[in-house]
Amino acid sequence: MTWLPGTYDPELNLYYLGTGNPNPVMAGQGRKGDNLWTCSIVALNPDTGKLAWYFQASPHDTHDWDAVETPVLIDGQINGQPRKMLAQASRNGYYFLLDRTNGKNLVSKPFLPINWSSGVDAKGQPIGNPDKFPRTDGTLIIPAMGGATNWIPPSFDPETGLFYVNVAQSYSIFYLTDTDEKPEGYGGRDSGLFLRRALKAIDYRTGEIRWSHEYPERSGPSSGLLSTAGKLLFAGDPSGNLIAYEAATGKILWHAHLIGPVTNGPMSYELDGRQYLIAGAGDSLYAFTLLP
User: Fold this and answer.
1) How many domains does one find in the chain?
2) 3 state SS for 149-193
């Protein structure tokens, strides 16, 4: 399994992170069942390493969709009641909202079109459609193996109540290449057919899309996101632009064309009374600030 940095909650003393996909990849005939605890969001006690709870985003994954996308901690309200929550836009195309004290599911909703799931179970975990497993003659799957999003960090604005994420609207043909009863390694592959990237703003309470910005460039990398108390959202596009959006509406307010696409997450800091915006592109680091 692949593990990437997660998020720590000092009040609950829990560390949240996502886990990688099962092996053999794509070929699930030799690993029946859910394959716990792959493709899961888990909460660990950092002092003991003990598992506090888990939520499996893709039981019995056959599409190489790990769940290592950044978990975001949200303190808010659901149905008028305060809740401590965790949100994740998953590589499989689902937006999940969990109670981070116990892992109970609050919302499971696709944030773009998908065709591999027939719905969710009583726990809010997606139910995979066996007709959409990879086959030797190919299966059309939405999204592609790269996923609806990936490791790049999303952002959350408590004032707008919006969860922002760069997404890949894609589909491809998945092939099963290892038909043995006990396959090993990569037992399949996919062949991409379509890709269009977009920035989406999701209502954290419901999973509904509040606004969306499609990038005209159909290929290229995605950037991480930065939302600020100044009601701004910063993102890089596949064409090499660093863009400032109005966080509530998605209106473009400013942009700068850089030497290459922004693949990291922009950051901001104050130094000597001046606020700076930093982003990396290609082999260069860019710093912007307002003139006095």
Assistant:
1) 2
2) CCCCCCEEECCCCEEEEEEEEEEEEEEECCCCCCCCCECEEEEEE
Q: Is residue 85 part of a domain?
A: yes
67 falls within a domain: yes
Burial of 25 (0-12, 13-18, 19+ CB in 10 A): buried
**What pTM was estimated for this model as a whole?**
0.95
The total of other beta-carbon atoms located within 10 Å of residue 85's CB is 22
CATH code: domain of residue 228: 2.40.10.480
Q: Are residues 215 and 237 in the same domain?
A: no
Please tell me whether residue 130 adopts helix, strand or coil conformation: helix
Note the pLDDT tens digit of each residue in 92-135.
Answer: 999 999 999 999 999 999 999 999 999 999 999 999 999 999 99
Residues tagged active-site: 64
> Do 159 and 14 belong to one domain?
yes
What is d(CA 90, CA 67) in angstroms, rounded to the nearest whole number? 6
Q: CB–CB of 248/236 below 8 Å? A: no
